[in-house]
Amino acid sequence: MAVLSLNGLSKRFGARLAVDAVSFEVQEREVFGLLGPNGSGKSTILRLVTGYLYPTSGTVRVAGVDVVHDGRAARERIGYVPEDSPLYGHMRVAEFLAFMGRLRGIKGQALSRAIDAAVERLAIGSVRGVIIERLSRGYRQRVSLAQAVLHEPELLVLDEPSNGLDPRQIIELRGLLRHLAQDCAVLVTSHILTEIERTADRAAILLDGRLLTVEKITRETATAPVPSRLETLFLELTQAKAI
Amino acid sequence: MSQVATLAAKEVRTLFTSPIAYAVIAVFVVLSGYTFTVSLIVSKQATLVHIFFQAAVQLILLVPLITMRQFAEERRSGTLEVLLTAPVREIDIVVAKFIACMVVLAVMTSLTLIYAAVLSAYGDPDWGPIYSGYVGLVMLGAALLSIGLMISALTTNQIVAAVVSLGLFGVLWAIDTLASLLPQPFENWLLGLSLLAHFTPFAVGAMYLSDFGFFLTVVLLGLFLTVRALARS
């Protein structure tokens, strides 16, 4: 069953068509990557999926629930990490997680258990009592991921999660994403091809808001030293834009 | 309701984590204390009318500092996206921020109760105007907070939010001076919008339903427009 289903999704900002009739599905426990140059509509699609924006036309369904007509129920099924992992810097990590848990309707013992589980999954036990603004970028990313998985969502949506991370943190993030995908579907954007190749099961390539293709990724191509099939395809499809 | 309480608790803590709330409260108390002392020495009357009028002007100057970052900063830092993509309604977020700002307003005004206590200890004040004056201050403050929140929701720059709020508050406070230059019925229309015209009866001890209605309408309209400013598009 598809956890996420986009059907003819379009979004217009004034005269500009940011997303143009995009359709695809993400299955259970699948990591689905969205690739595209800057301004290709990746983040807009994520904001449409999470209900932060409403589509001009088309539909988004999360576990069968329409994001526009039953937004609250749809958002209960989603965990979302926006680009640059915005957090409340003055809060301590545990306090922030408790705040986000309560917003998601988790209370009492269930909240304590959910926080413990998220802290363990994201390996942030050592910074549990630390004020967020004092954390490194890598830990901030983990805290942001922890708030997104607190309620055990069916769909995890990540916007450029590797932005600003150092190589070691990027490698750790890859492992985390594969680990998190054992329990939910993951929709992730990146403009770094290798990140999508190494973490995603399938990837869609976007250009000027249009979906050009959806490719299945095999682990052999992901680790090949020569340009992979996905890299070659990306360069071919987005060549006009690059020029 | 529990989400409003969760959000309001977070907002109160955020406001009192920042030095802005303490600075605003301190300035408010020091200035009103100075006026209270001077007016008491000069007039030797057990009244707080001067305090109420000065406090109202101080609210016009200080409320923008409380409301400016409420939405502008959340929008700029991206945390508004985190809130709006959680299963939370826009109105919950707006009401929570309004409640938190009202807590700051309540602390500010309640600290001035000491002046009433001093009058009571050393004189025989007329309590009617004191009660109504405090009601008026709270109503005026609530109206200013709701307008300030609305403006904060329209921008990502908190300085812009503060300056625009201050300008609008100033216009609404003194609009009756402009009204006197206009022919009827425009004069009455503008007078109906004047914060000063609706606050004055409270400050001098008269409470009219029309003034309650005015401030309540401004509060509800401000909150409604703030929700609309946050609405998904």
Question: Would you summarize the structure shown here?
Answer:
Chain A is an alpha/beta fold and 243 residues long.
Give your account of this protein's structure.
- The mean pLDDT of chain A is 89.
- Chain A has two domains: 1-77 and 160-243, P-loop containing nucleotide triphosphate hydrolases (Rossmann fold, 3-Layer(aba) Sandwich), CATH 3.40.50; 84-152, no CATH class.
- Chain A is an alpha/beta fold and 243 residues long.
- In chain A, 47% of the residues are buried.
- Chain A starts with a strand and ends with a helix.
- Chain A has a six-stranded mixed β-sheet with strand order 6-7-8-3-9-10, with helices on both faces. A four-stranded antiparallel β-sheet of chain A has the order 2-1-4-5.
- In chain A, helix 3 (93-103) packs across helix 4 (108-121) and helix 4 packs across helix 5.
- Chain A has helices spanning 42-49, 71-76, 93-103, 108-121, 137-149, 167-180, 193-199, 219-222, 229-237, 239-242, and strands spanning 2-13, 16-27, 31-35, 57-62, 65-66, 78-81, 155-159, 185-190, 202-207, 210-216.
- Chain B has one domain (2-230).
- Chain B contains twelve helices and no strands.
- Chain B has helices at 2-17, 19-43, 49-77, 79-84, 90-111, 113-122, 127-152, 158-173, 175-179, 186-193, 195-204, 209-230.
- The A-B interface holds A 47, 50-54, 71-73, 75-76, 78, 80, 82-84, 86-88, 90, 99-100, 102-105, 107, 147 and B 2-3, 6-7, 10, 14, 17-18, 77-79, 81-89, 232-233.
